[in-house]
Amino acid sequence: MHEKGLLIVLSGPSGVGKGTVRKAIFTQEDTSFEYSISATTRSPREGEVHGVDYFFESRETFEKLIEQDKLLEFAEYVGNYYGTPVDYVRETLDAGKDVFLEIEVQGARQVREKFPEGLFIFLAPPSLSELKNRIVTRGTETEDLINNRMLTAREEIEMMDLYDFVVENDQVDLACERIKSIVVAEHCRRERVQHRYKKMLEVD
Ligand code: 5GP
Predict the structure, then answer these.
(1) CATH class of the 7-36+97-201 domain in this structure
(2) Which ligand 1 atom minimizes the distance to the CA of 22?
(3) What is the DSSP secondary structure assignment for residue 33, as one 8-state letter?
């Protein structure tokens, strides 16, 4: 019997570039995980294809999916529903393949409750680490603007609590590399592999 795959969840504040990083990861040939295509009630943007970028559904259909418990998580974001079809996730994990979700933070919280053993990666904006510099150059910005930035930064830093790893999106290719390295490391985690070795001893 093969082992179950790893559930990888990439999330983070809105506007941080989750979609860009996810697309970059999945254009790389050596990516070995499967992307879970979400359902949404928002309209397709130019070039987006049903069943590739999203499953574009009516509100009615989406609400049926909720009622029938067909979604691992869902959230309302800027007036539209977004959700992760649960069957695909379970079947792919059961087949021993890693599944990658790129979702907003409310959804990630729900997944953490249902799949605490998942790998939760927070994509952080570089502005968080630049914040200190900005405060130093305070003279150039109004106090209101600084206060606003501080408030957003505080909220974003508090969001991190739920996650196992934080990756700064300073450069898309670097962020992708870090995410892939984290996945490799997670596969080597003692708790995940030790049972194999114990089994080896049982055989003898
Ligand atoms: P967009 O409309 O720009 O494609 O996505 C808007 C937001 O919805 C992004 O932050 C994206 O990560 C998030 N999102 C996409 N799919 C899902 C999903 O299945 N569940 C949740 N909770 N968020 C999603």
Answers:
(1) alpha beta
(2) 12
(3) S
List beta partners, residue 34. 99
Choose one of 14, 48, 73, 82 to mutate for the ligand 1 pocket test, by most ligand atoms within 8 angstroms of C-beta.
82
Q: Tell me: the pLDDT tens digits for 160-184?
A: 999 999 999 999 999 999 999 999 9
Tell me which residue has its CA closest to atom 15 in ligand 1. Answer: 103
Q: Which atom of ligand 1 is nearest to the CA of 105?
A: 22
What local confidence, expressed as pLDDT, does residue 138 receive? 59
Contacts of 194 (CB under 8 A, 6+ apart): none
Mutate to test the pocket of ligand 1, among 38, 42, 81, 111 (most ligand atoms within 8 A of CB): 38
Q: What's the sign of the alpha-carbon dihedral 180, 120, 33, 83?
A: negative
Q: What is the pLDDT of residue 139?
A: 65
* CB burial string 162-186: b at 16+ within 10 A, e below: bbebebbbeeeeebbebbbebbeeb
Q: What is the pLDDT of residues 78-136, one digit of tens each?
A: 999 999 999 999 999 999 999 999 999 999 999 999 999 999 999 999 988 777 676 66
CB atoms within 10 A of CB 16: 22
Domains of the chain, by residue range, sit at 7-36+97-201
